[in-house]
Design a protein that fits this description.
With 123 residues, the protein is an alpha+beta fold. The protein is built from 2 helices and 6 strands; from the N terminus they run E-E-H-H-E-E-E-E. A 6-stranded antiparallel β-sheet has the order 1-2-4-5-6-3, with helices on one face.
């Protein structure tokens, strides 16, 4: 199973605020995907950011997860490791019938980059 933790991003801390778990993450600019996405102007790929959400959800559940479906994924701003290296992954996770419904937002305190709603199942 492919993981991006400690290659694409690292988790600096994790806190709980009201009904959300907040992962404070740092993007790692040396990750190989940036060599081709895009040379001289690295942009964080949306698929890597969705994987980051999935891996954070997996840490909450203590299980490896499979993406079942995405009902909403709004990419509203560009994430780059140079201009937005520190991010928050704000997550609400609900377990229902051997599935995990996840609502997540990737932001930096002022800008929301991704709004995600979907479902993960244990592998």
């Amino acid at each position: 199973m492919i993981t991006l933790l400690n290659d694409y991003f690292r988790i600096d801390s994790r806190t709980v605020e009201n009904d959300e778990t907040v992962f404070h993450v740092t993007l790692l600019p040396g990750y190989s995907v940036y060599a081709g996405h895009f040379p001289g102007n690295p942009v964080s790929p949306g698929v890597c950011n969705i994987q980051m959400i999935k891996e954070c959800a997996g840490l909450l559940t203590g299980k490896q997860l499979f993406l079942g479906y995405i009902s909403r994924c709004r990419l509203s701003a560009v994430i780059t490791p140079q201009t937005t290296p520190q991010l928050q992954v704000r997550m609400q996770l609900t377990e229902t019938d051997r599935r995990y419904e996840v609502r997540a937002k990737v932001c930096d305190g002022t800008t929301t980059y991704i709004e995600f709603k979907g479902e993960f199942t244990p592998v």
